[in-house]
Amino acid sequence: MSVDVLVRGGTVVDSAWQGPADLWIRDGVVQALLRPGDRPDGAAAARVVDASGRLVLPGGVDPHCHVGFTSGEWTSLDDYRQCTTAAVFGGTTTIVDFAIPRPGQSPIDAAHRQRAKATEGLCDAALHACVVEWDDTTADQLRSLAADGIRTVKMFTTYRGETMADEDTILATMHALRGGDGMVVIHCESNPIVEDAQHRAQTRGGVDAGHMPDTRPELAETASVAAILAIAESQGAPVYFVHQSTPEAVELVAAARRRGLAAFTESVAHHLVLDETRYSGEEPERFVCCPPLRPAATVAALGRHLFTGEISTIGSDHCCYDLAQKRAHRHDVRQMPNGLPGVETRLPVVFSRYVVDQGLPLPRFVELTAANPARTNGLYPRKGSLMPGADADVVLWDPDARWQVTAADLHMATDYTPYEGMWLTGRPTTVLVGGRVVVDDGRLVDDRPLGRHLQAGPIDLRGLGWLGPAAPAHSDAAPAHSDTATAQPGPTPAG
Ligand code: URP
Ligand code: ZN
Ligand code: ZN
Ligand code: ZN
């Protein structure tokens, strides 16, 4: 028989509300928010979790997390167990990973293989599918994936020869998802501009890690976002831009949303907290990620968009490479593994730099890091909320804890953190997953792998602030691509 849990004495923070309240949990689900001290009718033997002096938050939802990700010659070092262990230590209780097909593999096969791993995790996980090339089976695969609860589809406009999709493929995928059954989530950097910048960098300063910013300029991002917005608009398809690092790109998306397109911005913690001076310091390879860290003025301007509502979510873009991997080709960023470890530090660095230092309201912090990522992934309000009926994934957060980040104290499967030595205020102390106390007082007390693969429901576009289409929706006339195996020829597969 499961014992009820009462989380008592804390300040509950949801995305729309904060105040003193107790939480009553049964069978892994929030039953009620209670007036402090009230005893719920029918809760007999209850385990009491003392939350006095703590904020009580819905567990974080990380919408952008690469687990054991293979790109070129590199594979990031964690598995589901390691990644979710680090996640829960950092207050995140749901991760959304990517099923990136290997060459020759179908999106559906990649997704089925990756989702089977979710049960190794300490917390729940959802998945983004990925389309690299369109063929006459792709539309059916997307329909079948959506029916199976995998509704978000990752695409890349860069990384030629790896995961880059051409614009025909992006348009065809958006067309297939235009009804709102799913959504393209896209990495936007104009590949021609990136490759040209890399070529120029090579003939000037070099392409070593210290020159990372020269190789992927801000213009590559804004140009690509504008092009992809136009395609989405032509199809009336929702679109979500991952790891936007420039305020110009965020503003393009916000303007499209005002015009009636369901378009959303994700930013990631490192672009909001670190700047490009890191590339002039020791070991710039520790900071090599795409897009690169930006100048301090860009970071500050990007951060202001957290307050205005123009940024919808904050992810980590977690990629667990270690220093040996980062160092191996540090003389040439084109051969380096891109990405930074961050699933464990996402919430603490954003809380400290934005809530504590700049007064970001607590409900907005929860909206950006839990509620909205749950909405964009069709998981809300089961995840990202503490309202009755939600999964009892609960974080007790000490808002005053002062601590210094060091890789030795973290749990990610790597030997470094880009935040080494940084002083932060605020951190999770106790974390419940499905009503079970998994981390208590900073120690792992329940390591049972009870993670589940989460099936996405419809994407909550209205909850994300989309007001609906401004113009008549896209007609269903056939586009210049194939929806079915028997229709016109599809776009030429990328060479
Ligand atoms: O640098 C990054 N972001 N690496 C991971 C792959 C991607 O582009 O998200
Ligand atoms: Zn990316
Ligand atoms: Zn990524
Ligand atoms: Zn069609």
Written description of the protein model:
The chain has 495 residues and is of the alpha/beta class. It has 13 helices and 21 strands. It has one domain: TIM Barrel. One zinc ion binds next to loops.
> How much β-strand is present in the residues?
15-25%
Largest sheet: 8 strands, parallel
Mean pLDDT: 94
Q: CATH-wise, what's the superfamily?
A: Metal-dependent hydrolases
What compounds sit in this structure?
Answer: N-(aminocarbonyl)-beta-alanine, zinc ion
**How much helix is in the residues?**
25-40%
Total of domains: 1
Task: Give the termini separation.
Answer: 59 Å
Count of discrete alpha- or pi-helical segments spanning 4 or more residues: 13
Question: Within the CATH hierarchy, at the fold level, what is the topology?
Answer: TIM Barrel
Rounded to the nearest angstrom, the radius of gyration is 22 Å
Write the CATH architecture name. Alpha-Beta Barrel
The 3D shape can be described as globular
Alpha-beta classification: alpha/beta
Strand order of the largest sheet: 8-11-12-13-14-15-16-17
Cofactor: Zn(2+)
Function: Catalyzes the stereospecific hydrolysis of the cyclic amide bond of D-hydantoin derivatives.
GO molecular function: hydrolase activity, acting on carbon-nitrogen (but not peptide) bonds, in cyclic amides
GO cellular component, one term: cytosol
